[in-house]
Amino acid sequence: MEGNRMKANWQAFLSERDKEHDKLWGKKALAGFGEKPALVLIDIYYSVLGLKREPIFESMKLWPSSTGLEGWAAVDRTAVLLVAARESGIPVIHVKGMSGIEPWVRRKREKNPAMTEELRKLGMEIVEEVKPLPGELVIEKSAPSAFHGTPLLFQLVALGVDTVICAGETTSGCVRASVVDGATYRFKMGVVDECCFDRTEASHHMNLYDMHQKYADVVDLDYAVNYFNRIAAKSAVNL
């Protein structure tokens, strides 16, 4: 793999005090990944993107949780990551929210009369660009973390996985919750910067920073693709 390819786009959101603290205590190198990765895609469904590609404030008129064009850009990059994982034989697991349960987000919103029951159901579908292939596991969750109350941990253990590479949304919500739980279970956690998305820029970048300092290696898309390719090449040699 290529050197120390951590991302650092969060610098613009650090105060001067934070930057000084980062010089003294901040993470200086990647902790590194293992030899048995899995790719976990989190909550990449239409309700957080809309059915068509629109700027965020336009999309929010119908889809209040939309992440707009930034979200779609991350989806397109995730599609590249997904192809690399599949071609390399890396297990892919899709995780999405369970419909029909009390939401965990503690805020009230006015119901939009244009949001029909049919649209609500469609909103819970994984977008076409990264839709699961036959045989790929799809897990529904009832909490922010992909681990909480789901069989994800058991599946990763059964596969012998030591490294979990995460992408999806929101960076500050379900991605972060999943990364913290994954680190708690002692998996080597990775987060692909360009393949994660959020509703506000500050929450996206600062949560990447925080995850990188404590729970994961935040890397760019090229690094993650090269990592998958290296794993595939090593597996081919060992056949």
UniProtKB/TrEMBL annotation:
Pfam families: Isochorismatase. It comes from the Bacteria. The keyword Hydrolase applies. Transmembrane segments: none annotated. Keywords: Hydrolase. Residues 73-221 form the Isochorismatase-like domain. Signal peptide: none annotated. GO terms for molecular function: hydrolase activity. Belongs to the isochorismatase family. PANTHER family: ISOCHORISMATASE HYDROLASE, PEROXYUREIDOACRYLATE/UREIDOACRYLATE AMIDOHYDROLASE-RELATED. This is Isochorismatase family protein. The lineage of its organism: Bacteria, Bacillati, Bacillota, Bacilli, Bacillales.
